[in-house]
Amino acid sequence: MKRIILYPIVTVLLVGVGHMAMAQIARNRLNQELATPQILAALEKNNVVQVAQTTREIDEKTALSLVWKLPLVQRKAKEIEQLSRRTIKVAAIVDSVPSPTQPYYTIRVFEDDPNNHNYTVYWFRVFSSSGVIEALDIIENKYVSLDEWRGQIRSRR
């Protein structure tokens, strides 16, 4: 008789305790979920300020200037102007600006022909966060470091 009465009572107690424990776990999880965005927001604010203070991004004008001042670009511009008897000028333009997927400026150096023909001479990309310049190796169709690019130009002559 004790078994018949005792087992259902113990079962009810265990189910009740289990239910209370599960309810407490659910409340804790809900509190964590509510607190997480607040914690993340506080962390993001601090991180954004610190990153903004330590990272110096370059602008479009600076990227264009960095490429235009490259000695190989200046030599090529003079060479083209001399060979064309000063009828063709060399210019550079920012072809694309940084985006979340491509963090660099794409710069195109081209012959600015008065007959409305623009022939691309070089392609470069300048990383907006560091100012590092890479040149497009048109044979391999990939961007390479300036040192590697200079070596390739010397070896192809």
Could you outline the blueprint of secondary structure elements for this entry?
Blueprint: H1 2-54, H2 60-68, H3 71-83, E1 89-96, E2 104-112, E3 118-127, E4 133-137, E5 142-145, H4 146-156
Antiparallel strand pairs: 1-2, 2-3, 3-4, 4-5
Which characteristics define this entry?
single chain, 5-stranded antiparallel beta sheet, rod-shaped, 23% strand, 5 strands, 55% helix, 157 residues, alpha+beta
How would you summarize this macromolecular structure in one to three sentences?
By secondary structure, the protein is an alpha+beta fold. Helix content is 55%, strand content 23%.
Descriptive account of the structure:
The chain is of the alpha+beta class. The chain contains four helices and five strands. The chain has helices at 2-54, 60-68, 71-83, 146-156, and strands spanning 89-96, 104-112, 118-127, 133-137, 142-145. Strands 1-2-3-4-5 form a five-stranded antiparallel beta sheet. Strand 4 (133-137) and strand 5 (142-145) form a beta hairpin. The termini are far apart.
